Amino acid sequence: xxxxxxxxxxxxxxxxxxxxxxxxxxxxxxxxxxxxxxxxxxxxxxxxxxxxxxxxxxxxxxxxxxxxxxxxxxxxxxxxxxxxxxxxxxxxxxxxxxxxxxxxxxxxxxxx
Amino acid sequence: xxxxxxxxxxxxxxxxxxxxxxxxxxxxxxxxxxxxxxxxxxxxxxxxxxxxxxxxxxxxxxxxxxxxxxxxxxxxxxxxxxxxxxxxxxxxxxxxxxxxxxxxxxxxxxxxxxx
Lengths: 112, 115
Hints:
The structure holds 2 protein chains of 2 kinds. By secondary structure, chain A is mostly beta strands. Chain A is 0% helix and 56% strand. Chain A contains no helices and 11 strands. In chain A, the strands form 2 sheets. In chain A, strands 2, 4, 5, 9, 10 and 11 form a 6-stranded mixed sheet that branches. A 5-stranded antiparallel sheet of chain A has the order 1-3-8-7-6, with no helix packed on it. Chain B is mainly beta. Chain B starts with a strand and ends with a strand. Chain B is globular, with a radius of gyration of 13 Å. In chain B, a hairpin with a 3-residue loop joins strand 4 (31-38) and strand 5 (42-51). Helices cover 0% and strands 57% of the residues of chain B.
């Protein structure tokens, strides 16, 4: 059973702080990793994708991947109340041609 | 106009009824997916299709069927709805040929209540 694990939260941080969201996955054959953001009642939208070990930065967001530890994280710098949402980690196992496996999501609350 | 549309957006039905949820996309993507989302359970894959002639079962396909009528249309049917199929249903599309690989683009969702 391929699994993607996330702490459900809620993770509460004050405005301006760094929010750190974590995700672990069970299958070492996992190839691609994604972070989606989902506002309440809305559809998920892609924030970041990462394919290689290390860090990938995009604005206030940094994705970190460590395949040896089977761990992927998302850092949000200078957190804003508008970042309050559920963050879904998704993993693709194998090459193109397989579907994504989603974690259950971590709810982030940023207080002003 | 939205790239991925779902109809209906909300539906209330009774146990035992057959219903169809429809998904259309204008993104030109070959790959389409149906997910359901339940509180605390995240997104779970029901069925997916990589082209018109390709249909694959996902994690939770029992009680559901799909039809890929065209590249742009992918329908999900509940043959005989039951209350535990009450959920938020999402359609998604992707194109592996694009830079960024398997980014999935989600429709707005259909909220289904089975009484």
